[in-house]
């Protein structure tokens, strides 16, 4: 979700709530269509999400945390494995394994050679998770899009103005130098959810 001026959070990281209640309910429904939901470590630390379909799908999608550091909180909603299974995937080239003791035994943990999202996609595919919902922050969203892991974008635009040069954007810098280099979205479907705008596009 983002504001009308393209921000997904304040410069202090706060983002609850940009979209309206009906839009957030739709997100729960969308989650039920996927095998796995991916977030990064920053999203886990800042938002402490639950990442379930709120009972719309049984079993719930696999909740996946992709982290470079393993510096994750000792307490998290995702550590409650009675709600849904959770998988932590870490970059073995940069993560500090001393943090592994923070993660409860019910959570599955896997290391991969780098932070390339393709490696995560391949790991999830081997687990039978072929439909993956990347519900992540700007850095991971940018890396996943550049790696070709994302085929469809779903965006909620709320009638709010956040402003601020240092406020959070949906993506990090792609370092494009020409408009011919940018990602073009296709087959866009636009609808209203009360006062929010919902846009679904293919890449």
How many angstroms does the end-to-end distance come to?
18 Å
Q: Specify the helix fraction band.
A: 10-25%
Strand order of the largest sheet: 5-4-3-2-6
Report the order of strands and helices: EHEHEEEHEHEEE
Radius of gyration: 17 Å
Uncertain runs: none
> What structural class should be given to the helix and strand makeup?
alpha/beta
Mean pLDDT: 94
What overall geometry do the principal axes of the alpha carbons give? globular
Percent strand equals 15-25%
Number of strands: 9
The biggest sheet amounts to: 5 strands, parallel
Number of helices: 4
Explained architecture:
The chain has 203 residues and is of the alpha/beta class. It has four helices and nine strands; from the N terminus they run βαβαβββαβαβββ. The protein has helices at residues 21-31, 41-47, 117-126, 138-146, and strands at 2-3, 36-40, 62-67, 86-91, 108-112, 132-134, 152-158, 186-193, 196-202. α2 (41-47) links the parallel β2 (36-40) and β3.
Keywords:
203 residues; alpha/beta; 4-stranded mixed β-sheet; 24% strand
State the gist of this model.
The chain contains 4 helices and 9 strands. With 203 residues, it is α/β, with parallel strands linked by helices. The strands form 2 sheets. The protein has a 5-stranded parallel sheet with strand order 5-4-3-2-6.
């Amino acid at each position: 979700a983002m504001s009308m001026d393209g921000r997904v959070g304040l410069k202090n990281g706060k983002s609850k709530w940009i979209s309206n209640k009906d839009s957030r309910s739709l997100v729960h429904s969308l989650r039920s269509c996927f095998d796995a939901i991916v977030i990064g470590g920053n999203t886990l630390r800042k938002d402490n999400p639950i990442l379930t379909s709120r009972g719309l799908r049984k079993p719930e999608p696999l909740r996946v945390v992709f982290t470079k550091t393993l510096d994750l909180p000792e307490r998290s909603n995702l550590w409650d494995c009675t709600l849904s299974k959770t998988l932590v995937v870490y970059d073995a080239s940069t993560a500090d394994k001393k943090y592994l003791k923070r993660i409860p035994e019910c959570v599955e943990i896997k290391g991969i050679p780098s932070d390339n999202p393709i490696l995560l996609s391949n790991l999830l595919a081997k687990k039978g998770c072929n439909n993956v919902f990347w519900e992540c922050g700007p850095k991971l969203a940018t890396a996943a899009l550049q790696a070709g892991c994302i085929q469809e974008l779903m965006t909620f635009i709320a009638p709010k103005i956040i402003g601020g040069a240092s406020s959070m954007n949906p993506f990090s810098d792609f370092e494009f130098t020409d408009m011919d280099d940018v990602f073009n979205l296709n087959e866009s479907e636009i609808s209203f959810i009360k006062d929010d705008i919902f846009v679904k596009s293919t890449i």
